[in-house]
Write a structure and sequence with these properties.
With 254 residues, the protein is an alpha/beta fold. It has a single domain, classed as Alpha-Beta Barrel (TIM Barrel). The protein contains 11 helices and 8 strands. The chain has an 8-stranded parallel barrel with strand order 1-2-3-4-5-6-7-8, surrounded by 7 helices. α1 links the parallel β1 and β2. α10 packs parallel to α11. The longest helix is centred in the C-terminal third of the chain and has 19 residues. Bound molecules: glyceraldehyde-3-phosphate. Pathway: Carbohydrate metabolism; erythritol degradation; Carbohydrate biosynthesis; gluconeogenesis; Carbohydrate degradation; glycolysis; D-glyceraldehyde 3-phosphate from glycerone phosphate: step 1/1. One of its GO terms (molecular function) is triose-phosphate isomerase activity. Keywords: Cytoplasm, Gluconeogenesis, Glycolysis, Isomerase. It is found in: Cytoplasm.
Length: 254
């Protein structure tokens, strides 16, 4: 981890969750109100359909609620999309932008991701900007170059430690049970930290850099102990309170 940066354990429920899942969310919130919250901040990014009810369900606890995407425009004829201001209006505080599943499923470019991040800031939200290499890019030895390109293109000028979180997610590690070696995670995060400091100075040194991709209770301690890993972005293991809180609890021993 980075000394002096309070870790963030963030969940991404992806296209999972209905009103029946709010009990699980409350259990997560209660965990962060107790022991799990002693070492880390907690966030769960729920489907847009659950945003308002999720905010209500965790009210009075330290768990933050976020969305998983936003449109770059403030309003307009964009059927099916949601604006950052609508997310803020629900009481959420964060939004993921540029997740690899959005980049792949919806062909989102770095420039579109940057526009979404800027829209999030205008609405007062924290933008969690995701980046990471594919399996083919890693095998071609292009990982660091890809990260540089994505960081340069996806993170707008004006990024600060308060309005931005960066999540490094190797695409091939998402939902596969595969994770990079500790050395590879360390190399990627050190590279991202250097790039952030070069661009944003001291703010870049304070920005949270999360690792995501098959994080679970069993590997959380090892991954969260890596230098410049300031938390985790968790998909599958964020759906059950026992798993997500297990990951959060690993912060204290890391
Ligand atoms: O946003 C979360 C990531 O895509 C990681 O998902 P995963 O923990 O299921 O591998």
């Amino acid at each position: 981890m980075t000394p002096a940066i309070r870790p963030l354990i963030a969940g991404n429920w992806k296209m999972h969750g209905t009103s029946a899942s709010l009990g699980e969310l409350k259990a997560i919130a209660e965990g962060f109100a107790g022991a799990a919250g002693q070492g880390a901040d907690g966030l769960v990014c729920v489907p847009a359909t659950l945003l308002s009810r999720a905010v209500e369900a965790v009210r009075g606890t330290p768990l933050a609620i976020g969305a998983q995407d936003c449109h770059a425009a403030e309003s307009g004829a964009h059927t099916g999309d949601i604006a950052a201001g609508m997310i803020a209006d629900c009481g959420a505080t964060h939004v993921i932008v540029g997740h690899s599943e959005r980049r792949t499923d919806h062909g989102e470019s770095d420039a579109e991701v940057a526009a979404k991040a800027a829209a999030a800031w205008r609405a007062g939200l924290v933008a969690m900007i995701c980046l990471g290499e594919t399996r083919a890019e890693r095998e071609a030895g292009e990982t660091l170059a890809v990260l540089s390109r994505q960081l340069a293109g996806s993170v707008p000028e004006g990024a600060t430690a308060a309005n931005t979180v960066i999540a490094y997610e190797p695409v091939w590690a998402i939902g596969t049970g595969l994770t990079p070696t500790v050395e590879d995670v360390e190399e990627a995060h050190a590279h991202l930290r250097t790039e952030l400091e070069t661009r944003f100075g001291a703010e870049g040194g304070r920005m949270r850099l999360l690792y995501g991709g098959s994080v679970k209770p069993a590997n959380a301690h090892e991954l969260l102990s890596v230098a410049n890993v300031d938390g985790a972005l968790v998909g599958g293991a964020s759906l059950k309170a026992v798993d997500f809180l297990g990951i959060a609890s690993a912060v204290r021993s890391s």
